Each structure stands twice: as C-alpha cells, then as structure tokens.
Amino acid sequence: MSRSSKNPALKAAKRGRRHPLANVALIAVGLLFSGGAYVAFSATTASADEASASVSSQAQVEEGNKLFQANCATCHGVDLQGTKDAPSLIGVGAAAVDFQVGTGRMPMQMQGPQAEAKPVQFTNDQIAALSAFVASVAPGPAIPEDKYLDTSEGDAANGAELFRINCAMCHNVAGAGGALTEGKFAPSLHGVAPAHIYEAMITGPQNMPVFNDANLTPEDKRDIITALKYMENTPSVGGLSLGSLGPVAEGLFIWIFGLGTVVAITVWITAKSN
C-alpha cells in the first residue's frame, strides 16, 4: 500500500479537499478578528463619549462660576469661603445648592431668622451649573439618584413610622410644619418636590439636623418621601383638617366658633323672649 493511501489528509489534499480542522480554524480567526475590532471600536467610542462629557462638564462648571460671581459672591465670597453675612459653601455639595436655589430660598431677599421659600430666580440649567461649580471646589452631598425619588418603589407604612420618629416633632405628624424658637419655623412639606425633601435630609438646612446614610438609608429616605406624598394626596377621612395643625388648632376652633355659636344663640333667644 502506498504512503498516500495510508494518510487521509494527504489523500484529501490531493483531491482538492480541506483539512477537517480548517473550518474550525477559519471560524476562530473570524471571531478573533471581529471581537478585536469590536473592542477597539467600543474603546474609541467610550473615549470619545468621556471626552465629550468632560468638555460638557467643564463648560457647565465655568457657567456656574460666572453665575456665582455675579449673584452669590457678594455674600458667600469669591472663593466660597463665606463672609460675616453668609456661611462658607466649601464642602456643602451640589445637593445643598440645588435645594437652596431650587426652592427659591437663595438668593435671600433680606436678612432674617431663616431663609423662606419663594419663587425660583434661576432656570433649571442655571441651577445645575451653580451646583456643578460648588461641587467642583470641594466634595459634598450629591443630588440624589432618580431611583431614590421614585415613590412607586417606596414603603409608605415604614416611611410614616420613620417620619414620626425623626421628623414629626418639628414638621408636625402630618407634615404641615410647626413653630420653633426665635422666629424660626419648620416649613410645611406639602407640595415640596421629592428631590428637595431628600436634599434637605442629607444637607440639614438651617435648624434641621443632617440625616446621613448611617441614620437613614437612601431607601429609608425614599420611604419617608413616599409617606409624605401619600398623606398629601389622600383626603382627610375626618372631614375638615383645619390645616392639620393638631389639637391646639382644633380646640381653638371649637372654643371660638363652637362657644361663640352657643353665646349667639343664647343672646338671640333672650332677645326674642323680651
């Protein structure tokens, strides 16, 4: 028997047929080439996206710097170091700026016991730019992620319990607000955007304490927001809520209007009998 008859590969080569492993090798080479091309393209695209985001972020910071110097530096200092009229903003983070400016508390109209909410003076883009600039100077609490503001994912029952334990002594059990000392007050939480409620918890504006993630987890904060929005959107089952200010307001209502009505009826009966 000849050598060629003993070697199938040689016989196949003589007949013009490929080796059985040739197809496997060809597929492997194709996969390697296409995979390498995809990785190179992805890396190039990612680098381009990062560069674009960096340019956009830098432009936003520069715009925020211009807005700050024109509107805020008089009180807070050109380097955010603070003055006798306003505190330092170094390290307060983007969340504090978004809360204070986004609720209209800043810029303040005049000095007083505390800054009150009023119509917002800046657009959303300008607020974002101011927040980015302040955050670029020193790290601080960031604007919360959307997943922690989604009340559809929150637990209203847990949030109501946490609110009663941590917040109700100032803001009232119904979130209607309450008086503090020296002309200060805890504002009503009705109608406040979820992001601003969250930001207030992590930045502690004015008399409010800071609730960091060790005190209340992000999920706990979301539950509190969920409970507040549930109370805000659910009608009072007891009828007229009288502002949800509690037993003092209800007792005063009964004293003035209830007793007043009794006195008026008594006077009317006495006048008719004469």
From TrEMBL:
Q: Does the keyword Translocase apply?
A: yes
Q: What is its main location?
A: membrane
Binding sites annotated in the UniProt record for heme c 2: 167, 170-171
- One GO molecular-function annotation for this sequence? iron ion binding
Report membrane topology: Multi-pass membrane protein
Catalytically driven reaction(s): a quinol + 2 Fe(III)-[cytochrome c](out) = a quinone + 2 Fe(II)-[cytochrome c](out) + 2 H(+)(out)
Pfam families annotated for this entry? Cytochrom_C (PF00034), Cytochrome_CBB3 (PF13442)
Q: Where does it live in the cell?
A: Cell membrane
Question: Post-translation: what modifications?
Answer: Binds 2 heme c groups covalently per subunit.
Keyword rRNA-binding set for record: no
TM ranges are 21-41, 252-271
Q: Which Gene3D superfamilies match?
A: Cytochrome c-like domain (1.10.760.10)
Write out the entry's keywords from A to Z: Cell membrane, Electron transport, Heme, Iron, Membrane, Metal-binding, Repeat, Respiratory chain, Translocase, Transmembrane, Transmembrane helix, Transport
Per the database record, which ranges form the Cytochrome c domain?
59-138, 154-232
Q: What GO cellular component term, any one, is given?
A: plasma membrane
Q: What is its EC number?
A: 7.1.1.8
- Binding positions (heme c 1): 72, 75-76
Q: How does it assemble?
A: The cytochrome bc1 complex is composed of a cytochrome b (QcrB), the Rieske iron-sulfur protein (QcrA) and a diheme cytochrome c (QcrC) subunit.
Protein's recorded name = Cytochrome bc1 complex cytochrome c subunit
